[in-house]
Every structure is written in C-alpha cells, then in structure tokens.
Write a structure and sequence with these properties.
Radius of gyration: 22 Å
Number of helices: 3
Structural class: mainly alpha
Number of domains: 1
Distance between the termini: 47 Å
Length: 76
C-alpha cells in the first residue's frame, strides 16, 4: 500500500509521540473511519425513517411495545 509522504511523516511523528507501531496506528485509524461511516449511515437511515410519517408511527408503536418489556422488577 502506498501512501503520501505527508501521511507517512504524520504516522512517523505519531509513532514517536505515542510509542506505538505504525501498523497499529494505521489499524486504529481504519477502524475509527469504519465506525464513523457506520454512524453516518445509521444517522442517514434514521433521518429517512423520521421523515416518513407512516414508518415513524410504526417505529413508535414498536418502541412502546418494547418499553413494556422493561418493567421486569430488576434494577438497572
């Protein structure tokens, strides 16, 4: 995998600063980006759901049904 010299230098500085291996830094950055994209997609889907009044009403009914399962007598 080729990366720009700027990215390589940034990784090198981060490695020196944190004492971590370059590969570990790249792995963490990729995982963080994956999670960021997942959350963006989830937010987009949620906004689409909220904008559909019928679908949102169904969602609220389902949530209310699930709320009934919570009073099980157990403390949080």
């Amino acid at each position: 995998m080729r990366i720009s010299s700027e990215a390589r230098e940034t990784l090198r500085r981060l490695s020196v600063q944190t004492g971590r291996k370059l590969q570990d830094l790249v792995d963490e950055a990729v995982e963080r980006y994956r999670r960021e994209l997942l959350l963006k997609e989830a937010n987009t889907a949620f906004l689409a759901l909220r904008s559909d009044k019928t679908a949102w009403a169904e969602e609220e009914i389902e949530r209310a049904a699930w709320e009934q399962t919570l009073p099980d007598g157990l403390e949080d």
